[in-house]
Amino acid sequence: MTSPQSDPAPQPPQPPQGHAHGHTHSHGPAAPVSKHLRKVIAAVVIPFATAVVVGLIAFWPGGVPDHERTGVGFDRQTQDGKVVQVVKVDCADVNAAQVPPTGDTSTPSGREAVAEQEGECVKATVEVTSGDDKGRKFVEVVQPDAPRQLREGQGVVVAYAPDAPRDLQYSVTDVNRKIPMTLLAAIFALAVIAVGRLRGVMALVALAVSFAVLTLFILPAILQGSNPLVVAVIGASAIMLAALYMCHGVTARTSVAVVGTLISLLLIGLLGSLFIGWADLSGNTDDNTGLIHGLYPDIDMSGLLLAGVIIGSLGVLDDVTVTQTSAVWELHQADPQMGWRGLYRAGIRIGRDHIASVVNTLVLAYAGAALPLLLLFSIAQSSVGTVANSELVAEEIVRTLVGSIGLVASVPVTTVLAALVVSADRQGAGTSSSTAAAPARTGRGRRRKA
After folding, report:
1. How far apart are the first and last CA of the chain?
2. β-sheet bridge partners, residue 124
3. 89: which strand partners?
4. Are 79 and 295 in contact (CB under 8 A)?
């Protein structure tokens, strides 16, 4: 008799309980979006992914084209070496063939000339430790004002010039940094795995895939004469698809981030193409780009500059779009009754803070990379207008501003896409929830659900 009396008591609050049940259902581990929305998203993402695969196949290079080595800059044959002996000598003895200094130390060249005659130089014996000439030794003289000094036991990189006289075929070109660089990379990988766990492992795998696309597709395809912009768009899209889906899973949330990133990349490509052409930026501003143009004159250097803008912006774009999509999804989980406008307004408030930090980060990153150049202009006491008008600096300004505009645009674009998707899914989920809650109008049904 006790249970029949207890059953009628909760009857009046049945509708609220049924509503509450539907509310908690939307917070459970149900499918992130309805079947209809999954089809809509697939209809957008699958053709895009197919086009990327077709582009990879169509533009896939057969490897880096061969060329005759110039012996200039990075285009040299190199081997490993080791400094086996270091002896300090009078610079006058090893620089005897040079023109005697005038004694005028008011200019940098005069001070260098005096140091080369009156200073103490280093005479280093270097042994080649790799290649056909392994074990061969040669002498390298280091001037006292040289930026890089040699010490005994130090690993070095030596350049080989086969056409030079035998005594001058080898010379030290750099320090061997393989061990510290490898150790630093290992520490980075361990830190990512320790903190990110499985996500960290997938992030490292995605990083390897990105590097593979860059070195096996983008760079060789550009060297073979393919349009740098087209190659960069295809390669960046492949990197984006691999990185986002591997790191964040094949979900509707990730697909929204993919679409937002794609729209932002297209905007960056259009703005970059417009302003690089309008500002007459050639992309050939230093020794390295000059060497590339000399070896492969058919490469469109301005197109190469635009490709660099797109690829350079991709990494930060991924961060922004994924963060905004996740923010909207979490807002929906916190309040499933919020419409798309409310989700957008709440998400854009988060995005404004993200914009401020990301743009500042991007500008400072480019400024840090160009710090020696900016210091050189400061020494020359050039005006800000003169500095900004020089092509070397103008390239960095256009690169920074175009990338920043794309980043800023990605926030509202991705936020509104995510808000529309989750709000549309809420309506579908609400229908299924109310349907599921219909049998729960009896106390027995509620107990079974619980």
Report:
1. 23
2. 86, 140
3. 121
4. no
pLDDT per residue, tens digit, the chain (450 aa), is: 444 444 444 444 443 443 333 333 333 333 356 677 777 788 888 899 999 999 999 998 876 666 566 555 566 788 899 999 888 888 877 765 454 555 555 555 555 555 555 678 888 899 999 888 899 999 888 888 777 888 888 899 998 888 888 888 888 888 889 999 999 999 999 999 999 888 889 989 999 999 999 988 988 888 888 888 888 889 999 999 998 998 888 888 888 899 999 999 989 989 988 998 898 888 777 777 777 777 777 788 888 888 888 888 887 888 889 889 988 988 888 888 888 888 899 889 888 887 877 777 777 777 777 777 777 777 766 676 777 777 877 888 888 888 888 888 999 999 999 988 888 764 444 433 333 333 444 444 444 443
> What are the structure tokens assigned to 356, written together?
């401020």
Distance, in Å, from the CA atom of 107 to the CA atom of 130, rounded to the nearest integer, reads 41
Q: Write the DSSP symbol of residue 383.
A: -
Per the document, the length of the chain is: 450
Task: Report the distance separating Cα 92 and Cα 124, nearest Å.
Answer: 16
Q: Report how far residue 86's alpha carbon sits from residue 260's, in angstroms, rounded to the nearest whole number.
A: 59
Return left, alpha or beta for 71; rule: phi > 0 is left, psi -120 to 50 is alpha, else beta. Answer: left
CA 40/CA 421 separation, integer angstroms: 10
Q: Measured between alpha carbons, how far is 77 from 83 in angstroms, rounded to an integer?
A: 19
Determine which helix (DSSP H) or strand (DSSP E) holds 131, and give its type and residue range.
none
- Which has the closest alpha carbon to 313: 356, 366, 350, 352? 366
Residue whose C-alpha is closest to residue 313's, from 345, 349, 269, 370: 269
Q: 180: buried, middle or exposed (CB in 10 Å: 19+, 13-18, 0-12)?
A: exposed
Stretch (H or E) spanning 405: helix 391-437
Residue corresponding to tokens 């729960």: 440
Alpha carbon distance 121, 372 (integer Å)? 27
Beta strands in 18-106, from DSSP E residues, in sequence order = 77-90
Query: What is the dihedral angle through the alpha carbons of 307, 308, 311, 315, rounded to the nearest 10 degrees?
Result: -160
Residue appearing with tokens 């361990």: 190
> Tokens 């008591």 label which residue?
9
How many whole angstroms separate alpha carbon 89 and alpha carbon 121?
A: 5
Q: Helix, strand, or coil here: 137?
A: strand
